[in-house]
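Field reference: sequence -> structure
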Amino acid sequence: MNTDVRRPLPATAIPDGCLSWSTEHTRRWTRVLPPGWTFVQRLGLRSLKLALLTGALAALGLTWAGLPPYLAAAAGLHLVWLPLRPEIVRVSAPALALAVVVLRPAPVLPVLVGALLLTATALAVSGLRLRARDRQRDAALAASGGVTAPLPDTGRPLRRGRSLSRLGTFLILAGVPAIATAGLWDSSEGRRAVVVGGCFVAGLGVAALLSGVLGRRRAVALRAAAAPVLRVLTRETRHGDARVFAADDVAGLRPLFTVGVVALDQDRDYDADDVADGAVDIVADVADVAGPVETNPLYDDRPGPLREAVLYGVPYDGAEVVLVSAAPTPGGPLVAERSSGPVRPVPESTVRRRLGQAKRTAARRAADDARHFGLVEAARSMSTAPVRHWRAGPVDRLSGFLMLVWGALLGGLVFTDGDVGLWKHALALLIGLYGAFRIPVKLCWRITADRTGLWLNGLRGTTHIPWDDIRSVRRESLELKLRWGGDGSWTVSAPRWAWLQRRRGVTHPYDALAAEMTAMHTDPGLRPTGDSEEGERGRPLWPLAVPLVLLWLSVVLAALVGLPDR
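Structure field:
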């Protein structure tokens, strides 16, 4: 293997006859991957939220259009099952189509056509992924040359899939009572909403339970006999997952796949497999493929070094594998890891797209950094003062006004309609309470700087941040972010029109504030020289939030009392 690799693997750790999975051989494997748009390579928390929200909205929309709740929930669940478990879609999509044809529900034809198109598309996409798996297996087996070796964790207890099975069982048991008690609701809309919600939760439980069963089944099958082996390169992501490269890709330019891993010597009852399965497998099962690493913009901000490794098992979309790799630090012990989630390939289209995105992001960040550092240099010419103050300005008042308008529109849409279910009022109540607590912060935030540090007022009181604890003050997109030691942070947002600012040569107030604070943080000579009085540091903002909370509670209560048949 190329000597440019940073962490070589000892020869004693390489099985006899083990071949290198070189770029020449990996081309065949990458050519048979399904299109990048057919699945999400990283189902992180944000992606999972989007899938759940889209699926839930689709189910509710079909229900309100007249489709029976259980059919509507099944249709919406396909948007969640597809990225998580295409194996379900292969069975559920034809079953749903057959149910629609046989039962012939009453809604208008476009609704039925939309439900059928949704399931047909999901079936086609899942078929592409599942058919591609066989070709991936064949390509990986051919690259191994038939060389096999016993797995290093043979005979160890296997916890794979336990927590997912428990989670799936819990969700199914939670969904069934909701469906059974739907008749207790007075309105037909409430009953439909409860039934579709219960079916949706139970469907998520099916996905979790099947993920646990399949993960354990494939892990057991991998350990039933000697497994094919390949020499590869691996790198740890900031999420603790493994990203695998071809054996001769010493620059780490083209990731082949990512997989969640846990050390084989993990001996806790509640180990990383439980965490990965219960919180990541159904959420992600993968690490992302973006974020700069050194000069390569494909990877995370804090990656581990490239290490030689031996891959046990046949890699394909959804596979289980074992990795034995060189130590991250020179002289350390070998790292033996098993998969805690399925293998997730990285298609070529994703590599190209992420490279383009990373380059554009890097250019945008470079421009923002240049602008920020230019403002910081300009701020170094300011004179010192005993105490400095920053407070909410016109852009913050505009932001607060927009939030009030949005709240008024929400109240008008929800509370003026007499045929609105109780759950909608509960949702509006929570959103309104969030706004009631957030608006005072937007309109009345205040930061005071004196010789000891920054004083930041908030809902509960004033927070003191010593100068040495400040980590950064930057405007990021629409937000002003202040970070300090111990994972402390404070954020406020306001509208920003970058193109208008560039055209008019106007500096956003958050940019100017961040530059002044940064200048004082990096140059102690610019910091204020006096001590601030308690009255200068701002007051707690909760007294301003109380009237808004009471007003919103009164509106919600009046709407509930005024509901017919309540």
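Note: The longest strand covers residues 227-236.
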